Amino acid sequence: MLVLSQASAATSPTLQQEIRWLQEEHYVTTATKTQEKLNKSGSTISIITADELQKMGARNLMDALKRVPGFGINQFNMGITSTGVRGVKTDFSEKVLFLINGHPVNNNLVNGGALSSYNNFRIDDIKVVEIVRGPGSALYGANAFVAVVNIVTKTAKDIDGVELSLSGGSDETNQFDLLYGERIGELDLAFNANVFHSDGINEPVRSDATGQSGRTDFWQKRYEMSFQGSYRNLSLQGRYTERKAGAYLGANNFLNTGSEQEYREYFIDGSYVAPVSDNLSVMTHVYFDHFEFDNLWELADNFYARSPIKHDKTGIESTLTWNWNSNNKLLLGAAAEHQSQYGVEYWTNNGAGELVNISDVANWNGSHNRDIVAVYMQDIWDVMETLRLIVGARYDHYSDFEGSFNPRASLSWEFVPDYHLIATYGSAFRAPTFGELYNINNPSIVGNPDLHPEEIDTFELGLNIDISRRFQVRGTFFYNNIQDIIAPRASQGAVNFSDNVGELEVLGVELEAKLRLRNGSTLGSNYTYQDPTNALNDTRAPEVPLQRANLWYNHRFSRSLNAFAGVLYESKLSREEADPRADVPATTTLDLALTWRNSAEDITITTSLYNALDAHHVDPSPSGVMLSDYPNPGRSFMLELQFEY
Predict the structure, then answer these.
(1) How many CB atoms lie within 10 A of CB 6?
(2) What gap in Å lies between CA 600 and CA 447, rounded to an integer?
(3) Sequence-ordered list of residues with C-beta below 8 angstroms from that of 323, at least 6 positions apart, any chain
(4) Rounded to whole angstroms, how far apart are CA atoms 518 and 451?
(5) DSSP assignment of 490-552
(6) Nearest to 79 by CA among 300, 245, 291
(7) What's the pLDDT tens digit per position in 589-636?
C-alpha cells in the first residue's frame, strides 16, 4: 500500500495537468470582437499558445505563422519577412491585418503593412496568437483582406512577478527580455523590455542586379518596450519599437554594406467599458499611432539616397454589446480616424560627395491626409443549440476615394455531436496606400490619385470533427475572387504607374489533424492546396507554391523535458511568364527544439536548431532584376535561459 501510494503521489501532477487540459475550453475574441468558444466562432481560426511557442523553439512570430495552414513566409529584397496567405503573396503583407491586443498596427501608410516594424516580433511577451483566415473587413475595415492576426500579450496575472530571459546563438545573435507583472489591489500592471542584436542573414548571392557576387548584409538591432494596465473598467496599453538593419540586397537589389534601414513606431491605446446594465455595455477606446522610417540606401557604388517619412493615426471607436435575449448578441460600432503623412524628404549625393537635400525639386512623395468614418454591426444568433448564424456588415467612408461596404455571414451547424459544418461568405477591401496614390519622381513607377480599393469576395465551407477530446480533424474549402488589384501599368513613357489592373481567382483546400497522446505528447499536421489564377488571361499566378505541408511532433519525456521536431514542405515556385530562369525547386526544412524546466518551474532552458539539415531555400526574385534569388537563412542554433521570480 505504501508503494502504491508513493507511485500515485509521484504521478498525480501529470494526471492533474492532463485533467486540466481535458477540461479546458478554448475561447477566442478576434473572429467576432466578443469572447466566444473556438468551435462557435463561425470562422476558420487557429490559435498558438505561449506553451506551444516555447516548445517549438520559436524565436519570433514568423516561426509560428509558418506552421499555420494557408500561411507562407517569404523574403524579398529589403530583407523584411512577408506573409503570403491562401495564394495571395505581396512584399509588404498589406493584405493581412495585424493586431496587438486588438489594436491595429498596419501603420506604414506608404506600403500598408505592419511588418516593417513587427516582422521580428519576439515571443516572450506573447500569451496567445489568434489567426483568422478569410476576410475581416466587416468588423475591422481596411487590410483585413485575407487574414487577421491578433497577438495577445501577457497580462499581470499571466506574469505574476518577474521573468528574465537571455538568449544567444548563430550569426552573433543575442537577446535580452524582461517581463514584469503585478496586481496591486484593483490595479493590474504589466511591462516588457526587449533588446535584440544579430548579424542576421549572411547568405551567398551568385549574381545581383549588377552581376556581382557576394553575401547579403542583413544585420539587425531591435529595441522594444511595452506596457499594459487596467483599473476596474479602464485599460491602457502602449508599445515603442525601434529597428535598424542592413540592406540585405537593398532597394536596387545591389549587394552593399553602406545601406541602413531605420524604423521607429509607437502607439498608445486607452479604453473604457461602461456597463449600462447586466446585458448591455459600451466600450470606447481612443488611440494614437506614430510610424516613421529614415532609410539610407546605397543604390550603386558610392551612390547614396536617403528618404525619411513620418505617419500618424489618431482615432476613436465605440462598440455597443447587447445580449438582447438568451439567443442573440448584437454589436453596434462606430469609428473615426485621421491619418497624416508628413516629414517627407529626399537626400542624395548623385554618386559623389556629401548627401544634399533636394526635396524642393525632386521629392519622392509629399504631405497628405486622409479621414475615415465607419459604422458596423454584427448579430450572433443561436437559432438552436446546434445551429448558429452570424451576420454583420461595415461601411467605411474615405475622404480620398469612394466608400467601401463589406458584409459577412456564417452558419455553424453541429449536425451530429462533435461534427461541425461551417459555411461562410465575406467581402473585404484594401485601401490604396499613400505610395500607390502619390509617389512621384520614381524612375520605375509613380502613383495614381484615381485608384480604387482592392476588393475580395470569399466563400468557405469547413468541416470540423472532434473524433475525441484528444483527436481533432479539420477541413476547409475556400474560393477567393479578388478584383481591382493594384499593380504597375505600362505608360507611353518609360515610367509605369499604379493602376487597378488585375483580377485573381484562388481555389484551395486546407486540411488539419492534431492528436494529443496520453503522456501529453502532441502530433500534428496540416496540408494546403492553393491554385491562384489570373482571371484576365487564365494563367496560374507565379511565385506561389501549389502545395504546402507541415508535420510536427512534440514528445513529452516528463513534466520537465520536451522535444520538438517540425518538417515544412513547399512545392516548386513557378516564375513569371517572361522569366527564362528555371522554376524554384521544392524545399523541405527541418526544425528541432528541446525544452527543459526544473521541478520548481522557475528555470527554463530551450535549445533550437532551425533548418537543421541546412537545406538551400530561396524565394524568387522578380523577372529581369537579377539572376540570383533571395536566400533564406541556413542552419541556425539558439540557446535561451529563462528565469521566473
Answers:
(1) 10
(2) 59
(3) 279, 280, 329, 330
(4) 56
(5) --SSS-EEEEEEEEEEEEEEEEEEEEE-TTS-EEEEEEEEEEEEETTTTEEPSS--SEEEEEE
(6) 245
(7) 999 999 999 988 899 999 999 999 999 999 999 988 889 999 999 999
